[in-house]
Amino acid sequence: MEKQRTILICDDEPTLRELVRVSLDGSYRFAEASDGFTALQLARELSPDVVVLDLMLPRLSGLEVLAKLRGDERLRSTPVLVITAWNDTMDVALEAGADQFVTKPFQPDELKDAVERLLSD
Amino acid sequence: MRRKGLSLEGRLLAASVALAMLVAAVFVALILAITTLHETTNQEAESKDVTVSALELERLVLDIQNSMQSYVIAGRKSLLAPYASARKALPEKVRQFQREASAEDRAQGQRARVLGEAINAYANYLDALLTFTGEERLAAARDAMKVEAKIEVDDIRSQFVRFHAAEDARAAMRADSASTSAQRAIAFGIAGLAASAVLIILFGLYLARSIARPVRDAAAGAARFAGGDLSTRLKPGGPGEVGELTSSFNEMAERLAQARSELEAQNAQLRESERLKTELVNIVSHELRTPLASVLGFTSVLLTRDFDSETRRHYLGIIDAQARRLSGLIDDFLDVRRIEEGRFELDHELLDMAALLREEALLYSGQSREHQVELDLPDEPLPVRGDPDRLRQVIGNLLSNAIKYSPGGGTVELAAARNGDSVHISVRDEGIGIPETSQSRIFTKFFRGEMATSGISGTGLGLAVSRDIVESHGGRMGFMSAEGEGTTFWVELPKGNGQEGRLPANEPEDS
What we know:
heterodimer, A: alpha/beta, Rossmann fold, 5 helices, B: alpha+beta, Four Helix Bundle (Hemerythrin (Met), subunit A), two-stranded antiparallel sheet, 12 helices, rod-shaped, disordered C terminus
């Protein structure tokens, strides 16, 4: 059995974090952050295999978290999946270094496929 | 200009009549001058007649004098022939002379009368001398001719001299006055013609200045206006209809310019409302997408997988809560529209604010694990007259804001107390606070301050709607905030008066 993967879910909405957890429906280890500051802290602490990042985060926005991750020697190549409410912000997210994105509302399978793709790369 | 009341037509008519009258006056004066000249000429002719009569009369007197003289010296009857013919013509000549002289002038008439009487007396005296015949009588007559007759004839002659002198003086005076009036007539005629010419020129200038030029200016102004320069105005004033034309034009221009600026303002307003609508659509799409993602996501999960009944119930609970949240958002948008359209209806029932606050505190304390909702309420009920659903909406909004804007967690204190004739409610948090630059606009619709970029979601409607609700209840709403230390929102509602017994049953403690 392969090593359990760690997924960091960053969203200020508890229900959305739960939805991400339920959608991924796998034997992952989940870490959750409700604001950008905690998200960055946990990422540095846990070195997660995938970061699921909402762009609308208190204290430190998703884009700022993304920029900081990409600026971090150790976390530079960590795959990041961005969840956004606006199609408009996708370009900005991809430019900032996001590997995948989904738009709200998303299908659970859509999210699951995207995360699995990131893990298999 | 001077007389606003007179129409242009009236003015032109008046000016023409005045001009015509002036020209007529000049001609009347000329005719009068010529008539005077003519009269003077007539008088001169009359004067010549009188002089001729006087000379003829003088000759007759000389004839009878000389004839008589010759007779008394020579004594020959034949020498009296001239006397007889002159004596015969004399009375008629005297009358003619007197008539002509008195026709001319009273003084001359008087002189002629005296002169005539003297001549008649002299002739009668000579007649009397003729009755003396014989040598000694002739000698007496000779003496008489030398003395008495001589005195009389000398007197007559000197009277003639005086008469002629007076006549000459009169003639000279008349000639003088004739030449003066001729000169005056010529001067008057020249002055009148010059004045007429000047007046006609002035009239032409008046026509050009006060009609032709304003009309031309008006035409040019209208052309500029038609070309799109709505600031064009004509110089106000001008006589009669021209003045009306310019003032009407200016009025029309004013109205059009005003209408255009109104249209521009409306246009700007429309653009602003269009911008707000676009913003609204963005906010709505964002705010609706988050709960929608949960509703659709969990529904999909429930539909595609099997769960035990407890998990299923949990997910259905989430779906229910998020669907309600969606519904609440839609209500908020509708409230904004109702408030904007002025059809915001409120119930006015007596309710206990303390009980309402307890319910809300209970509801929100379950929403976040990082926040503690503390209640500070008096034991007595806090009666308020109002719409319970709307007031619940206000308190709910303040509590959810307090939680939302203190992302690090902490205590949210909900307090209320009677304060004179009002009920004072406050919601205090230990959150991020409101930056000073945003404080003045915190109640503006769709204003979210720095929150729009901070990642904290929201519509920017909650506070705007809440304040409208509070003010509709006759209350006030405000806040105190320090960045980094937290915010306290307060609401003051008028105390509800009415029978306390009608208050809904008050649960003593949270049950």
